[in-house]
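for ur thesis appendix - GerMN domain-containing protein. copy paste whatever u need, i formatted it the way the template wanted (i think)
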Amino acid sequence: MPRRSWVTWDPTTESRRELMRRVPIRAAGIGRALAAVVAAVIVLTSCGGIPREGNVRAGQADLVDESPAQVFLPSGPQRDASAESILLGFIDAASSPENNYAIAREFLTPSFSADWDPTAGVIVDDGIGRVVTARDEQTIQVMVTPIAEVSATGEYRESDSTPVPLGYQFVQVDGQWRIQAAPNGTVIDENTFNDVFSASALYFFDPGFDMLVPDLRWFPRGASAPTKIVNAVLSGPSSWLVGAVATAFPDGTKLTADAVRVVRRNAMVDLNSEALNADRITLERMKAQLTASLPSGMSVKVTIDQNPQDIADLGPAVNPRVDARALILREGDFGFLAASGQAVTPVDGVSDAIVGLAPTAVSLAAGQQAAVALAEGGVWRVRAGNDPELVDSRAGLIAPSIDNDGYTWSVPMNQPNDIVVTGMDSAAVSVASPWPEATTIQAMKVARDGTRIVVAYTIGAEPRLAVVGILRKDGLPIGLTAPLQLMADSTPALDVAWVDELTVASLSTLATGAKQISARELGGASLVLESPPDAVALAGSNSLRDLRAITSSGGLHVQRGVGWQKRLDGVTVLATQQGIDK
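the 3d part is after this line
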């Protein structure tokens, strides 16, 4: 069996220290997980977890730290080992990216060692269900069942667990078996993946350059992580976000050398001459993207062709926050529920009109001066100081959403491709959907940054859960990007909600009749939460711990300890918020 060991690695000095016994690092799962999550509360459905507290950026602090980090150093090939032992040793060694996967390359022939590309992607499996079959003396197949895959650009996608065959060819080199052909990329079990890789949210701007929008990626830990992050930012967003977000970096901007030097938490980023095309505000935006994307607490010093640049801090909004209080309609009052007690504080200029509509769903706009509601007659828009306005009278509409540009999004459940957006000038525009084969749509919620939508729909009897980017022209929505498909529950969702900038939650009814709430990190792992009995709708707050649910009998439920607790009776609507400020 291959032997593993760990050494400590100091990324600020790039020096190895004493060899140490391997200690598994299970930081409560992949991504922004918290060690305080109790296993009885949640059931992990993949190789990672999602935090239930706070607004920590996705794992950035884990990539580079002032203290030495553990680095996996596997064993090299053993003399006179069988072809199968060489194969298993190679797969194990390919978990270590140190020195450009130098140890793993020892298992390859000299010519193939130069051709093999370990950065082509990662298959993550449980490490248990691998089946090794010798096809002949020089060919071995390994059947692996992925639970997730990571692309060459660090994009993580949960897998449907379909087995994948991987073929390896062998030849004798000086009497020793070596691999002369193998798939590019690596195969890593979930435990080792947690140890070797860490998540980092790359940040791009919304089209108006008002907010930063995250794009979660996964990179090996260690001294090279800042370089990988900066190169990824310069390369642009994931394909599903192209057109929905913007970057401040001029076309062709690259690092002058493929390295970001880090000295005492200061990242030295030297860009090529293409960056000279940037004006002052663009330089500030460039620095803001890098600062937000690199590990927390790391400062950024930008130079262009080694020439220092005096760039101020821009400080744009990241992850717009909502009022931490629940927004409800109860017994003729609409507003924010007091942290304790049953008092409801109305929303100035909006609450009376909402109460008069007797709605079944409400979304309050950022700035709290407008809202949209589903009520008798269709979707209504309420603006402070104005009478309610009917903006969509079609039958069978689902709960509407309002974005931070003031556009109302509405669609009938049985017409999932007939999306209409209505502006503050009451002009309605159709937006083509990227799911033409859909038969029904259950929920559609716009993110608080206005760049993305989470949607639950079905194709026949097959449930789908996806996130799409919003394409705009001068603020007007003109289209949607191709969907980023998320792992859906086995039954169609009843409701969806944005938990924070990178996490969405969905509510569904299982075949047994029980309710299930699932939380999914965009570009990360998913988990299943206990659900209140008979829940029918969700609303996010500022963390997963503050997710709320309402039941068909009007009970407002909040998370407490290892489960849910009824906070209040008589609630008819649990409303969605889009942010405090606009």
